[in-house]
Amino acid sequence: MPKVGMQPIRRSQLIAATLEAVDQVGMSDASIAYIARLAGVSNGIISHYFQDKNGLLEATMRHLMQALSEAVHARYRLLREDTPQARLRAIIDGNFDETQVSGPAMKTWLAFWASSMHQPSLRRLQRVNDQRLYSNLCGQFRRVLPQPQARAAARGMAALIDGLWLRGALSGESFDTRQAAQIAYDYLDLQLAKAETALS
Question: What span is annotated as the signal peptide, if there is one (predicted)?
Answer without folding.
Answer: none
